[in-house]
Amino acid sequence: MTLRIHNTRTSRVEEFEPLRKGQVGIYVCGLTPQDFTHVGHARAYVVFDTVRRYLTHKGYRVRYVQNYTDIDDKIINRAREANVEPADLAERYIEECEYDFGRLNIQPPDIQPRVTDHIDEIVELVKKLVDDRFAYATPDGSVYFRVKSARTFGTLTHQKIDEMRVGSRVDPEESKEDPMDFALWKGAKPGEPSWDSPWGKGRPGWHTECSAMAAKYLGAQFDLHGGGIDLIFPHHECEIMQSEAYTGKVPFVKYWMHNGHVTLKTEKMSKSVGNFKTIREVLGAYRPEELRFHLLNTQYRKPLEWDPQSLDGDAQAFRRLENTVLEIRERLRKAKGAQDGKHTRVMKGASAMIAKVRTGFGEAMDNDFNTRDAIAVLFEFVREANRILDEGEEMSVPTLNEMHNAFQDALGVLGLKVGEGVQVPEVFGQMVDYFLELREEARKRRDFKTADGIRARLKDLGVEVEDSPKGPTWKRRV
């Protein structure tokens, strides 16, 4: 199976061929840490965490870089309102972000550079662009990129210069040669953090940081650049122009991926608009796995309308999937513990089902990381697995292992954890079996109060007891 990716640069779904065999370099635009993270942030970084996991699953050695913009206008303004230093504000919200992302099982990047640690690299990039006449300094100590001098333009928007409008973060100023020119370096203003440069004290422009850090950690050209769809213009277009002018290498990035927005009443979820739900707010009512599952149950390029009813439905769906995995684990525990060898029969159709889920899951993920279709394959597996499990107790340990491994491989790619960190499965199962024995003894004594009490306590632990003519059975409900 060949991985195919929708490339914003070409507007086509293309076969993925990295620049260096077996290796993939990824840069994803990171957060500006000036407040708590919201669900829109969660979606973007869950998406690219899953991309990274799948590429690793396919055998690539992945180098994943994701920055922090720890100085910009928003941080300065927010720090002023809070009467704290911008660096202290950024540090606080970096810690809060990492806590939230950790709960969502988002793996830390291999490299997580900060703007304030890369001033030298940024100044070097800007200086070369000035020397090569791609950029110019102004009397206030700022430096602007000459857009009309760019080697390439409209790489992602597929528009000509005359068709483009000045973006909301590319403010026209009198000191510019052209309204489309954008700041590489901003001259210092009173009371703002600043650093030395050949043009006087100042700080980096928004776009410059990513070009400098990507070049340092991934080189003049690399495989994949990710970010939200709102970054296509102006941020990513500006990155391309300045990077290709700086290095002379075209294209700067081979594949560009952009995730769709999380929307609330069809409007992009955003702090500036005030229509956002923080990750912590949502995780006060749902488990992290349920939120992550919900975010992946829509193809990444499509918008995701925030709807509590939809989240409720996805949370219930994830629990159904989870219960099947836990049932397989419990059957495996019992089969391994059997002494008389009776658990040896391979259930008819199990091997074909396992092969089908592995193939179907891979085909879905190879189709532009279509997690929605991949999840649909898992639920086909759930239905078939439950049918096979209901046929009887006898099943071989290797077959149960294969069923469990097929599930775990897929869940690992999606970054979903099932029943981990709650109880050690073997110890938990032994405990439940012991209490069921006590319950059976109480029932034989006709002490139904004690029997019902044991059943109620087990239910509190997430264990559902089912009585049958052959004796009680149980399932762990999460």
Can you walk through the features of this model?
The two termini are 35 Å apart. α8 (288-296) crosses α9 (308-337). This protein has a four-stranded parallel beta sheet with strand order 4-3-9-10, with helices on both faces. It has a four-stranded antiparallel beta sheet with strand order 5-6-7-8, covered by helices on one side. The chain has 14 helices and 15 strands. The protein folds into three domains: 4-306, HUPs (Rossmann fold, 3-Layer(aba) Sandwich); 314-414, Four Helix Bundle (Hemerythrin (Met), subunit A) (Up-down Bundle), CATH 1.20.120; 425-476, no CATH class. Helices cover 46% and strands 13% of the residues. The protein has helices at 39-57, 73-82, 86-103, 119-131, 208-218, 232-247, 279-283, 288-296, 308-337, 350-366, 371-389, 397-414, 425-444, 448-460, and strands at residues 4-7, 12-15, 23-28, 61-66, 135-137, 143-145, 182-187, 202-204, 222-228, 253-259, 262-264, 267-268, 304-305, 463-466, 473-476. A hairpin with a 2-residue loop joins β11 and β12 (267-268). By secondary structure, it is an alpha/beta fold.
